């Protein structure tokens, strides 16, 4: 099962496990199911308009780790209407 991390653009950090704060270290970031992460992002981004930077985004664990190794930001889809959520 694919696990997801939640990046906070507002805090510039990853969500910790069980929604308990933030961390700059990907190893300490919480792992969430797609449904959990999508629910968090939808709630956090109420009032978000297309073209704006969302407060919170979900990123698959594999993409987040690959991006960290490549020293680049993960690519994300901010289309909340998409059934697949934010995964690209």
Class from secondary-structure proportions: alpha+beta
Query: Mean pLDDT, as a whole number?
Result: 83
Measure the end-to-end span: 17 Å
User: Which runs of at least 5 residues are low in confidence (pLDDT < 50)?
Assistant: 82-88
Task: State the shape.
Answer: globular
**Domain unit count:** 1
Counting DSSP E segments of at least 2 residues, the number of strands comes to 4
Give an overview in words:
The protein is α+β, with helices and mostly antiparallel strands and 88 residues long. The chain has one domain (4-70). The protein has helices spanning 34-44, 61-70; strands at residues 4-8, 13-15, 22-23, 56-60. It has a four-stranded antiparallel sheet. A hairpin with a 6-residue loop joins strand 2 (13-15) and strand 3.
Layout of helices and strands, plus pairs?
Layout: E1 4-8, E2 13-15, E3 22-23, H1 34-44, E4 56-60, H2 61-70
Antiparallel strand pairs: 1-2, 1-4, 2-3
């Amino acid at each position: 099962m694919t696990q997801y991390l939640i990046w906070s653009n507002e805090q510039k950090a990853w969500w910790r496990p069980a929604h308990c704060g933030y961390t700059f270290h990907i190893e300490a970031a919480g792992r969430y199911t797609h449904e959990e992460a999508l629910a968090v992002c939808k709630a956090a981004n109420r009032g978000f308009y297309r073209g704006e930077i969302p407060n919170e985004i979900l990123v698959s664990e594999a993409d987040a780790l690959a991006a960290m190794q490549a020293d680049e930001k993960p690519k994300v889809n901010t289309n909340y209407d998409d059934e697949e959520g934010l995964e690209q």
